Amino acid sequence: MLKYDIVIVGGGGAGLMAAIEASKNKNIKIAVVSKVFPTRSHTGAAQGGMNASVGIADPNDSYEKHTFDTIKGSDFLADQKSVAFMCKHAPDIIYELDKMGVPFSRTQDGKISQRPFGGASFPRTVYSADRTGHVLLHTLFEQASSKENIDFFNEYFLLDIDINNGKVIGIELLNIKDSEVLYIRTKSVILAGGGFARIYWHRSTNASGNTGDLQAIALRKGLRLKDMEFIQFHPTGLAKTGILLSEASRGEGGYLINAEGERFMAKYSPNKMELAPRDIVSRAIELEIAQGLGIGEGVKAYVLLDLRHLGEAKIKEKLPQVRQLAIDFEGFDPVKDPIPVRPTAHYCMGGIDVDDFKSSETSIKGLLAIGECACVSVHGANRLGGNSLTELVVFGKFAGSYASEYASNTDFSDNLKSTNGKEYIENLMKREGSTKLHEVRDAMGSITWSKMGIFRTESSLKEAYDELTELYDKWNHIPVSDKSKIFNTNLIELLELKNMLELSKAVAICALYRKESRGGHSREDYKERDDQNFLKHSIVCYNDKQELEVSYKDVDISLYKPEERKY
Predict the structure, then answer these.
(1) Active site residues
(2) DSSP E strands: which ranges in 394-535?
(3) How many C-alpha atoms does 168 have within 13 Å on its Cβ side?
(4) What is the DSSP letter of 176?
């Protein structure tokens, strides 16, 4: 049986940063488990940059101002000491990444360049053209691969976490390459597996593997999920596919126009315009379309993102990937034509509840959660663009440090494994039925987008929960039609679908009970923010009857008192 002091599940930015930091202790062994090859992790999709008050573009910026912008952007639902912790440590970690070899874009005098981003009072987003996540991911993977005490388990799927007496003791994995089940004894597990915005199957910026596997398994193991109703819809997804066009396109001066050629954001955010927070810009676009000011009809309607005035040289230098995506997937060259865009599901503010933001430890000893699969909470009801990569590296670094110390002072458990992954997979492979996997998944995507999307009501959310519950029951009758063991993607998609359905229900029930509008959660029947009743985190977990149950937890507002959010 394999033994590792620390097992990190997730090979993206957060997991790799944690592994690199933990590896400084040469006496411990670290395993990094990834569902895909690490350089295919979703961190690579982050385009525009990462926020840090390094003060190069404007020396008047500070971590306190970054903290306030983030708290305001969160619609005052972020835990404020967590935010201050992230913002305070961000500049030092940017310079650490610079020394590792991350090729940040530079000013003419060779300093790290910064650009404006939504919801920020200063241009504090450091970047590498519009491929920031890509170069960050490759640099971290290169660094982690050079460490002698880090082993990679690529293309392994997490099946279960072994917990005994409130303490993690092992994990169980499915080897995607041959469908064999592997158990690893460990002292500490760091969950770093990304988000679940693929529950909006038909319209999401996320890769098809962003199915929330770790959040769903944590929920089934009795852990709490926090703030699941808060989904971020990115304003500028390509109209046909939902593929992300980076906020960098607006940070560099691009603007949005409707069917009449009007730069309409002046009506919704006269000060920040296109650089208002993402929830505000997304709702503005949808309202323009609802008023008949979009181009096209129904689900195919869109507005336009205009970059032409930036000029060919600037677009090629600062936005090369944005240009290529527009050409490849829409057939429009932004040098010559405006680009059709519409909001698309992008990021999940909610995730596994973290008890201690400095260590990222959950309610289970030795079990940590970082990155988009976790909820620290630094994003609250709405994440500011540029803060996700910052969150990955800051909390990844400190989680790695804590896990290293914890593992050094903890013994391996002598308890036998209590998981049954092998039997579970064997039973799934034998299962017969006539229900089609793709039909259930398509139905899920239609329900989530139409009934718990950018605008929500009590009736739509009740319908969503009931219909998703029916789909969850149908999942038990979907067969594994591919009976082979070698790279059985049919089996993986079935496991992923269960996770997405479970998390979709959690989003629906949390959204139903939150009778207010705040950040990414917009209720048409409760249009105002309600601090008296809902200035608190929603917590969802299973009760003794194995039913989802919602409770609430106080928000840390120790630094800044809530105020009206205006831009």
Answers:
(1) 278
(2) none
(3) 34
(4) T
